[in-house]
Automatic annotation (TrEMBL):
Family as reported in the entry's similarity comment: Belongs to the aldehyde dehydrogenase family.
Domain Aldehyde dehydrogenase: 3-449
Source organism of this protein record: Limosilactobacillus albertensis
Active site residues according to the UniProt entry: E229
InterPro entries: Ald_DH/histidinol_DH, Ald_DH_C, Ald_DH_CS_GLU, Ald_DH_N, Aldehyde_DH_dom, ALDH_GabD1-like, GABD/Sad-like
SUPFAM superfamilies cross-referenced by the UniProt entry: ALDH-like
Keywords, in A-Z order: NADP, Oxidoreductase
One MF term in the entry's GO annotations: aldehyde dehydrogenase [NAD(P)+] activity
Origin: domain of life: Bacteria
Pfam families tied to this protein: Aldedh
Record-given protein name: NAD-dependent succinate-semialdehyde dehydrogenase
Length: 457
């Protein structure tokens, strides 16, 4: 497998990276394990907090440089890439501020004696990460685990190697000891080999169901703790009492941000019959106003997709949807630009027997569904293999919350599109995976909750 930056706007190969050898993998495992043992002995939490503070400074200082690397790797809009660097810096602030609290022992109430749970690191982790948020995805797992004292070996997506290396270099520059985060250009076999290695304690993956199932199988076979952050087919439900000015402002962005390549993008818009035409007009109006072009140009509003492969896959999915009865309300025409652009598209009339009904479309394609009632909206939202997030619009917060609680997902956003902040747990249920990242829940995943107990004599 080739690790290459192929700029999806110019289609030029910007850089190719050498694959990691087995010897380099072995060396990395040995270094990371020694680091883990050293941290277990000396703790060094204060030093690790300082490194993360330094990392936050470096990210803020060089945000443009890092944003440009991401844009060239996978095509995202430069403004969105800069926002991503800022978000990663905010993770640094958050975990440094809360480290002592998250790692403090829990005293267990028991009348049988005395008991406490101390929080300890587990060992070296393997992180397998995707390309859609090249810095954010790494930051989400690296920062909390570094605070805990779990070294990390990173296998990032083969189409954003420059971003992964830049993040790892920033960590080194921040003063992290060797082995803290090592970015390797691994084959799938080498990932399996690393997971099976005795010195590795766990694996976290963000990616597709296909990638997740394979890695989880290997982790299971080797009894390694793992977390899976997988795809989504998030519903956007507009209730009878929604604020339509807000819907008009939020809905198009909830689909088109990052060119629609977000696990939690709103993908299925569920609208009451009486509002259906109005909603379609709103989406068409917004979709027809996008400006495609150079993602490094701040005036561009829709970026190319990340690769030719991603564009071909999405086109295949739209074609399949249409072949099975879906109607194209807007879009689905070729874009006269060299890069991997996909015209924003609105599909309607997708029936449950359409193979695309239960498939994630990773790009600027909105599926719009008409329902007769709120109950039908909830039923439709839950008729999915996925369970990542959903969005509910209502002027009455309690009403929206009641509906949100009925949707089988790990996250619900009310009167807003999807969001990710350091203090909010991120993750899903069903085929969207298991485990949580960010917040106190995220730092907890790869921690040994070690009980110390003395029974009353
Ligand atoms: P993907 O193909 O599964 O790739 C993700 C990562 O897994 C890449 O580093 C990939 O490496 C690696 N990988 C895939 N198969 C593997 C295997 N058998 N062994 C070892 N590594 C393997 O996913 P993607 O299509 O690039 O990413 C988009 C998906 O991620 C979407 O479904 C999206 O919804 C999901 N996602 C979920 C979240 C969340 O938090 N739930 C967040 C972001 C994205 P290569 O690049 O070398 O193939």
């Amino acid at each position: 497998m080739a690790y290459q930056t192929i700029n999806p706007y110019t289609n030029e190969v910007e850089k190719t990276f050498e694959n990691t050898t087995d010897e380099e993998l072995e060396q990395t495992l040995a270094t990371a394990h020694q680091l883990y043992l050293g941290w277990r002995k000396h703790n060094d939490l204060e030093e690790r907090k300082q490194v993360i503070l330094n990392l936050g400074h470096i990210l803020r200082e060089r945000r443009e440089e890092y944003a440009t690397i991401m844009t060239k790797d996978m095509g995202k809009l430069i403004g969105e890439a800069e926002g991503e660097v800022d978000l990663c810096a905010s993770f640094c602030d958050y975990y440094v501020a809360h480290a002592d609290k998250f790692l403090a022992p829990d005293i267990i109430a028991t009348t049988s004696g005395r008991a406490k749970v101390i929080k300890q690191s587990l060992g070296t982790l393997v992180a397998v990460e995707p390309w859609n948020f090249p810095f954010y995805q790494i930051a989400r797992v690296f920062i909390p685990n570094f605070i805990v004292g779990n070294p990390m070996i990173l296998k990032d997506a083969s189409n954003c190697p420059a971003s992964a290396q830049a993040f790892a270099d920033a960590v080194k520059e921040a003063g992290a000891p060797e082995g803290s985060l090592t970015n390797l250009f691994l084959s799938y076999d080498q990932v399996n080999k690393a997971i099976a290695d005795k010195r590795v304690a766990g694996v976290c993956l963000t990616g597709s169901e296909r990638g997740g199932a394979t890695v989880a199988k290997e982790a299971g076979a080797n009894l390694k703790k793992n977390t899976m952050e997988l795809g989504g087919n998030d519903a956007f439900i507009i209730l009878d009492d929604a604020d339509w000015d807000l819907v008009a402002k939020v809905a198009p962005v909830a689909r088109l941000y990052n060119a629609g390549q977000v696990c939690t993008s709103s993908k299925r818009f569920i609208v009451l019959e009486k509002d259906y035409d109005r909603f379609l007009e709103i989406m068409k109006d917004a979709f027809s106003k996008v400006k495609m072009g150079d993602p490094l140009d701040p005036s561009t509003t829709l970026a190319p997709l990340s690769s030719k492969k991603a564009k071909d896959k999405l086109q295949g999915q739209v074609d399949l949807a249409v072949k099975n009865g879906a109607k194209v309300y807007y879009g689905n025409k070729p874009v006269d630009l060299e890069g991997q652009f996909f015209m924003p598209t609105i599909l309607t009339d997708i029936t449950p027997d359409n193979p695309i009904f239960d498939t994630e479309m990773f790009g600027p394609v909105a599926s719009v569904y008409k329902v007769k009632s709120e109950e039908e909206a909830i039923e439709l939202a839950n008729n999915s293999s996925y369970g990542l997030g959903n969005t509910v619009f209502s002027k009455d917060y309690d009403h929206a919350e009641r509906v949100a609680a009925k949707i089988e997902t790990g996250m619900s956003w009310i009167n807003a599109g999807w969001a990710s902040l350091p203090e909010l747990p991120f993750g899903g249920v069903k085929n969207s995976g298991y485990g949580r990242e960010l917040s106190s829940y995220g730092i907890d995943e790869f921690m040994n909750k070690h009980l110390i107990y003395e029974a009353r004599q």
